[in-house]
Amino acid sequence: MPASDKSAAPDPIIQLIVFRLGQEEYAIRIEQVKEVTLTPDIARMPKTPSFVKGIANLRGDIIAVIDLEERFQLREATEELFAQTYTMAIEAKDYTIGIVVREVPQPLSVPQSAIEQTPEFIQEANIHDKYIEGIARINDRIIVVLDMLKLLTPTEIMQLPTSAAS
Amino acid sequence: MKNRILIVDDSFYMRTMLKNMLTDAGYEVVGEAANGQQALEMAIETKPDLITLDVILPDNTGLDVLRGIRQEQPDVKVVMCSAVGQEVIVNEALESGASAYIVKPFSEEKVLEIVGNALQ
Amino acid sequence: MSNREQEYRELFMAEALEYYDAMSRHISELERNPADEEALRELFRLMHNLKSNARAMGYTSIGEAAHHMETVFGQLRDGEATFTGSMVPVLFGGIDTLGELIRAAGAQQEMPDVQRLLDNLDRLTRGEEPNLDDEEADDEEDVSRKLELSDLVYIQVRKLDHLMNLMGELIIDRDRILTLSREINTPALTAAAAHFSRIADELQYSIMDARLVGVGSLFSKFPRVVRDVATAEGKDVNLTLQGEDIQIDRNILQIITDALLHLVRNAIAHGLETAAEREAAGKPAQGQLTLSAQAERDDVLVQVQDDGRGINVESVRRKAVERGLVTRAAAAQLPDAAVRAFLLEPGFSMAKEVTEISGRGVGLDVVKLAIDSLGGQLRVDSVLGEGTTFTLVLPTSIAVKGALLFELDERSYALPLMHTDSVVSLLPGSFSVVGGVLLTRLQDENVPVVSLRELLHLSGDQALAPARKSTLQGRQDIIIVNYNNRRLGLIVDRFLRQQDIVVKAMSKPLDTIDLFGGVTLLGSGQVCLVLDVPALTRLFLAKRP
């Protein structure tokens, strides 16, 4: 392949949905987001990790709703989740799952090139880097782009032990 | 001592009917085979006194089975079961050592008469 | 109709439909490859068998049609003719006609006329051209006649399932609308909501009704199974069928098919003795096996009953101790019914020998799981030396279940009525503590009682803390659940009400938590967890102090 092709390769625009967790901005690819709604009534489900808020009825689908701030410990333990929150319904591999956020998530278009791979400083944060697709730098903003498919595997959500469950 | 009979027919319905008729008449049905291969195996295994043998079977013809059985067990009586219109096969079967034949659909009396005669 | 005639008729129908399916398959193969010898041989054989069987049954037109078809396929097989030209539509049409004839025989309806088909087949046999113009015109006539005659439609179960799911949604909306209409409280709205609710109810029952089939449609497959298994096992068995007309949801019947097969095979292989053993025990040589169904309130009871050797409770008791399922001391005190229930525990097997049909590990637990998945119950009764009866208590319909609603930590939960024994409200004085377990006396039986809250919030490998009477304040609302002959009391915050609920399966990834059989939506829009009694009971047994 001639070298000139590489420089001429188009820089695709990627559509993200940006939301706030703790003090930081996070994003997911728009195609993984099914819809955003006011958080419906959630039934707490015993025998699940505490960041699984419970299950909710989303237009007839019964989905699990999770709190990523709690999962990644981005909120002070004493601080409660706001009374009024939003839920993003995310398409995981073969099911839908809800993620609660404090503010209405916003769409954002960024060029593919703005997303940097394998950042090192993330190690300091509590997010294991295997969930991170990359870091988008837009002007002064630093947005962590999450790989939802990795984050939302049943093993991750249920924090199932690798050995046989009880 | 009850006479022991092996039924060979690929129709479950036919086998059931024959079995009921023969059992009711005091014979012991020692096995039911649904194809030629099974028939040959069960004939050796169960050593029946008499075999009712359908002329048309899924894997080979009743005639082949008849010849196979007679080779192994020359003493066993074989009654061929056929439908109308298979006189050619029936004649050939009688020449190959079959004792008698029954034409389907058969009546209970006819079956018992033919089987009884063959066993005498 | 005598039993035997009935049996012959069922055998004939089952085999004829099988033949018809195979004929349709083979003639399509022939269309792709007109010289396919295998297909020709099979078609000839199938026609031959159908002819013989139909004549024996007295179905003259099926016999005649099959005979004429057999003749043509015989010529094709022997290379005296080729599958081509005008012969093709006649033979295809012939197989269709056989299908209609067989179905008419099954429905005990008048047989369609086959003279035209016979004439055409005769022409083909003589090497003449069939009369096809007539055929087409008559086809149209056939179609209009069929429309007039048939009061039945065949429908795919998938479509009925879809209707049922939509119905479930509608019931949830009905409850929501009723709740709203009470809150808004406008006479016109209240009247409209009440009317809507009545229609929705009726629709629900009509859909459930459309899915019901006679238990006989499954039972009728058993004469053959019993015959085959009995032959393989060297047993003499007489099968009696009862209650074939009892109606049950088709999918429930589907789910219990394997369970029933398993029980019947077990009964023949392990329950019934050989003729010699029976005679030695002073019993008739022939073993009796009964498959019966009866309706009991909203449930259907299916029983598999044998008059065989019965279950030796003492050897089950011994084995349960060996397996560590129960201590020797506790085992000695267990009533027989509770001991027999061990047979249903995972991996517990009483089979002494490996047999061709039942194989090793005669897993009654598999049967139990199938019944549990339906929210049903499995019971074993047995008298040593006299026989064993397995009873399957099944719901008539899957989607709607009777449930008891209660409150815990300000959330509503539901418990299926199928597993609910009773509800009691008891003062602290009615309890005693034995070995760290809270007990109460109900109908002369000590029933363990546990706080549902504590049971649900145990984490991982934590065991329940020993119970203390001092923690009980005032009246305790307790639901007594029953699973596999074990009763367990669950302390809840408050009873709410009894209600029919539509259970939705738990969605992934939460479906790994077996404590919940699913969820239901209440009229208020609230999501309500449906507890799974078998899993709760198992959890209690594993976690008790």
Automatic annotation (TrEMBL), chain B:
Q: Which parts of the sequence carry 4-aspartylphosphate?
A: 54
Superkingdom as given in the UniProt entry: Bacteria
Q: Which UniProt keywords apply?
A: Phosphoprotein, Two-component regulatory system
An example Pfam family from this entry, by short name, is: Response_reg
All residue ranges annotated as the Response regulatory domain in the record? 4-119
Biological processes per GO annotation: phosphorelay signal transduction system
Protein name per the record: Response regulator
